[in-house]
Amino acid sequence: MQTAKAYSAASATSPLAPFSLQRREPGPHDVQIQILFCGVCHTDVHIVRNEWHGTTYPCVPGHEIVGRVVKAGAHVKKFKEGDIAAVGCMVDSCRTCENCKDGLEQFCQQGATFTYNAPDKISGGMTYGGYSDSIVVDEAFTLRVPKHLDIAATAPLLCAGITTYSPLRFHKVGKGQKVGVVGLGGLGHMGVKLAKALGAHVVVFTTSPNKVKDAIRLGADEVVNSKNEDEMKKQLNSFHFILDTVAAQHDINAYLALLRRDATLTQVGVPAEPLSVHVSSLIFGRKNFSGSLIGGIQETQEMLDFCGEHNITADIELVPIQKINEAYERLVKNDVKYRFVIDMASLK
Ligand code: NAP
Ligand code: ZN
Ligand code: ZN
What we know:
Helix content: 10-25%
Bound molecules: NADP nicotinamide-adenine-dinucleotide phosphate, zinc ion
Number of domains: 2
Distance between the termini: 20 Å
CATH topology of the largest domain: Quinone Oxidoreductase, Chain A, domain 1
Order of helices and strands: EEEHEEEHEEEHHEHEHEHEHEHEHEHE
Largest sheet: 7 strands, mixed
């Protein structure tokens, strides 16, 4: 075992604070990564504050990790020491169940080992995430980063990127389709860039009038102020697909009304309280309301390669780890453009 520096929360109400933890010695299939950057996902806030009621403390969040390989086990093929490597929301799964075999490790029937706040099947205890200076991960759950992309701005692709890419691909979003992205935050702004790169006509729904210009710059063809009923009415029955990234309570029926016949609204944002769907919103027009969870490892690599080809990264604000509690406050107040990324060089 070796000691790593980190930031952890001791309870749902305590701020994140310096912490030290143990990482396992890398085995033959493991890489040890010196973490350079870690994105700050809204999920980190939900879990640190126990909003989903399943947090074990101390909790070290972080699942948008990019760093440098400092040790590679004898059987590691993907990397050598000195290479840049990335880790997303999972660090292991059973690899033998139907879902793992289909490349959908996030739905592992024995439970995927998520990067933090999950039982650690190798070392015992709970997994600790990327708000740390190092991590040890089986190479099967690591990703390669296209060489020409800025590595700090690549970190958010590991969650926000794959979480939006996977449903866009699953629902075959492309040219000739009108696609809505609800909420222009970390996930939403990646959804806009990716849907645009896939060839769709992209419409952003925002509650923040000060984001309109950015939405267009990021690739939106239209922007709708979702609080304005007239603007919403103009969009009725017109969408082939809508991706909803909103992390708070909102009227889902207002968006189902915007779908064309047989079209789908996929929810990726996870409000702490249930959303209320009127059955009539679905039966008139045979509409679908679905969900999606991150994406499998192979698809995450495909997304990174796609971003490499299209020069897509996140719009980020780099913060030192000492400012993480302030960053959480700002994230909750919707004051980030569009992803905080922790510069791990600050963790001394
Ligand atoms: P974020 O950066 O905070 O973005 C959420 C956006 O939702 C905000 O920027 C805001 O956009 C909109 N919003 C916030 N409060 C709202 C309200 N009361 N009513 C309407 N809109 C509101 O968060 P994120 O990191 O993108 O994460 C979004 C959600 O996805 C979180 O719940 C997170 O846990 C979840 N998530 C899910 C997965 C998955 O696999 N399914 C993966 C990662 C994250 P506007 O200002 O444009 O309105
Ligand atoms: Zn996330
Ligand atoms: Zn499995």
